[in-house]
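Convert to structure. Protein one:
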Amino acid sequence: MRLAKREVTDTETLRAMVDACKTVRLGLVDSEGIFIVPVNFGYTWDVPAQDPRIPSGAASMSTRAGAVTARPAAAPHLTLWIHSATEGRKAAALAATEAAATPIAIEMDIEDGLIHGSYACAYSYAYRSIMGIGIAHAVTSPSEKRQGLGHIMEHLAPSEEAAYTSEAIERVAVWRIDVTAFTGKQREPKRTRLQ
């Protein structure tokens, strides 16, 4: 990342960014070329437990340099859940990437407003974004499909009840994307001075 000051590394801030996004864009490739598909999603967010023998925030010694460094926080595991028709370009591309274990790209963002400038090139936009890669897996068991659809509904319409008929479960394709790496980035809105 060119501007390290814009990188977001705090786990709770990253999760809040994912939660605020309602659309993820998938970067896929097929015989026709590269294409991007925006889809609704659900997610699960798991933060691995730290080694209980090492207190949180404790320093660890580097034996090579003899320097004391802070123990890094455990990286969260992000899993995305999407659904689609069982046929079509997106479904075929996802199936091909799964068969080849080829990663797909993911991107999600939140617009936080226009940043005004004194001349045209000084204008910009405040935003928060997540970019990464993951491996797509077709979900085939009815119980796991229900689980995936439940995550989608929980994220998009948490107050709504969701029931799925056996026929609907059979007809829908559900995909689990195990995100293997992602980064967060933020450009904050400019603060105005108090009068």
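Protein two, convert as well:
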Amino acid sequence: MNARSGRNSSKKVVIAPSILSADFSRLGQQIGLVEKAGAQWLHIDVMDGHFVPNITIGPVVVKKIRPFSKLFFDTHLMIDRPDRYWKDFVAAGSDLITFHAESMVKIKSLIKNIKTSGVKCGISIKPKTPVSAIMPYIGMIDLVLVMTVEPGFGGQAFMPEMVSKINQLRGIIDRKNPSCWLQVDGGINNQTGKIVVDAGANAVVAGQSVFGQKDPAAAVKSLFRAVDSRP
């Protein structure tokens, strides 16, 4: 698999460590560790303090780390107006832009604009948002991201009631857009990772269970073994 292709022709599960939980004083080093351990994507959480009650990073961080990693940059915009800022993240080196169905945008127009720019496009839904909210767009996008915690902060507990949503989306994606990734983010560790993969996810985001550990590389390898998808 080409690390920046966004494809996984072997159908193995993609592991996307989230830098939200990384040590920013050693960010380049930690990214290098998970890349060497076999992680295929790097999940980049962007928060504006309005859409979610936290503020994280902007495109300048993406631009600074882009030259040092061949990983697929999976950028998750948890912001009110992704339509105003997505271009900055593409210019900085993002390979995938995921925005929220709950944000203040014209969804169909934004999908078209992002995809026209040459990068991939995903839609995320919060735990309380029903699958029906994104049904009209499943055929247009490259990824659906199911949040299994309320977005905003890392280290939250996995919400098991979201498993049925993952399973429902797996069936819909298989019928309407089989090439679309089904990603899960929130409280992912070895145990919950296996649960969501068994439910149909083929991309998992892991923050604290990777970067919150003493050995992030070992944590990535352990997560791969847990979901039976070691590359």
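The chain has one domain: 14-226. The radius of gyration is 16 Å.
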